[in-house]
Amino acid sequence: MNKEPMTIRGHELLQQELKKLKGDDRPAVIKAIAEAREHGDLKENAEYHAAKEQQGFIEGRIKELEGRLSHVQVIDVTEIDAGGKVIFGSTVRLLDDDTEKEITYKIVGQDEADIKTGLISYTSPIARALISKREGDAIEFNAPDGEKSYEVIEISYV
What is the CATH number of the domain that holds 33? Predict the structure, then answer.
């Protein structure tokens, strides 16, 4: 299986979530199940069934995170000499040719993408158009709402 690129921040966030699930959430739900068992008949015990359902969710999420973390390649953009080009992990400030508005995106892994906070997946159409461009270059790509064009104003590697 191919390694999935991920930023240091994205990797840390997944590790923190996994640590919380294993260290806090899992023991809490085990305790809740034990307490619910003490109440007697398990067939009609809503607390027991809710705790078991929560346990299933927690264990599923732990397996999912462990799987993801075992297949990532953590990329530290500050350690790479990009030669002034847009690469994975770059933060890019763009000028929309149509609206003259500036927008900033950071190119990240698929698990980290969140368009509302300016984090775009390296597999997105705009990221694919940006990779290997330099400051001053123009890009064009097909967005869901039609053809878009931007100018690369600034590239940073933080």
Answer: 1.10.287.180
In the numeric block, which tokens belong to residue 14? 């997944």
Domain boundary among 12, 40, 75: 75
Residue bearing tokens 């999420």:
61
DSSP secondary structure letter of residue 40 = S
Q: What is the pLDDT of residue 1?
A: 60
* In the chain, % of residues over pLDDT 90: 77
Assigned token pair, 26: 């899992």
How far CA 130 is from CA of 38, 50, 56, 70, 152, in Å, comes to 59, 47, 41, 28, 8
**Interatomic CA distance for residues 97 and 138, integer angstroms:** 9
